[in-house]
Amino acid sequence: YTFASTLSHLRRTNTPIGRDGKLAKPRQLHNTHWGLVCPAETPEGQACGLVKNLSLMCYVSVGSPSEPLIEFMINRGMEVVEEYEPLRYPHATKIFVNGVWVGIHQDPKHLVNQVLDTRRKSYLQYEVSLIRDIRDQEFKIFSDAGRVM
């Protein structure tokens, strides 16, 4: 075996659907797969489009603990969700860590900048994803393992 074939085999993904089905949608690449799934490398025959390969520059996140990040945000003014009073802070920004609502913050722009600075200074791992949704008033942080990046 060659290095290229070994690398291709290790980065293979499989869609758990019957090979003899004639459905076209599971075999096609979605627009969100751009840069994550190789559009050219797929087998011929019945498995065409059901077996896909990760792109060369794509990797899977290892993950990091979320507790230090939550403590960091509590020390910077985040109010934990158990103590949140919606009538007192009706326009507060919700903060989610790995999909779990952990708290709210009154000044999300300042908090986002502080979290960005800690990631830039490598106190947070570089693979931690930060998303600020201004319209929905949410700040989402993902540090879990298994995310394709």
Verbal overview:
The protein has 149 residues and is of the alpha+beta class. It has two domains: 3-53, no CATH class; 67-142, Hypothetical Protein Ta0175, Chain: A, domain 2 (Alpha-Beta Complex), CATH 3.90.1070. It contains three helices and seven strands, in the order αββαβββαββ. The strands form two sheets. The chain has a five-stranded mixed sheet with strand order 3-5-4-7-6, covered by helices on one side. The mean pLDDT is 91. It comes from Trichoderma asperellum. Pfam families: RNA_pol_Rpb2_3, RNA_pol_Rpb2_4.
Our count of domains comes out at 2
Query: Strand portion, in percent?
Result: 15-25%
Structural category is: alpha+beta
CATH class of the largest domain, please?
Answer: Alpha Beta
The coarse overall form would be: elongated
CATH fold description of the largest domain: Hypothetical Protein Ta0175, Chain: A, domain 2
Uncertain segments: none
H/E series: HEEHEEEHEE
Helical proportion? 10-25%
Total beta strands: 7
Instruction: Compute the CA-based radius of gyration.
Output: 21 Å
Mean pLDDT: 91
The total count of helices amounts to 3
N-to-C CA distance: 28 Å
Question: How would you summarize the topology of this molecule?
Answer:
Layout: H1 3-10, E1 12-14, E2 51-53, H2 67-75, E3 79-80, E4 93-97, E5 100-105, H3 108-120, E6 129-133, E7 138-142
Parallel strand pairs: 4-7
Antiparallel strand pairs: 1-2, 3-5, 4-5, 6-7
Notable characteristics:
149 residues; alpha+beta; Hypothetical Protein Ta0175, Chain: A, domain 2; 2 domains; five-stranded mixed beta sheet; 3 helices; 7 strands; 20% helix; DNA-directed RNA polymerase; ribonucleoside binding
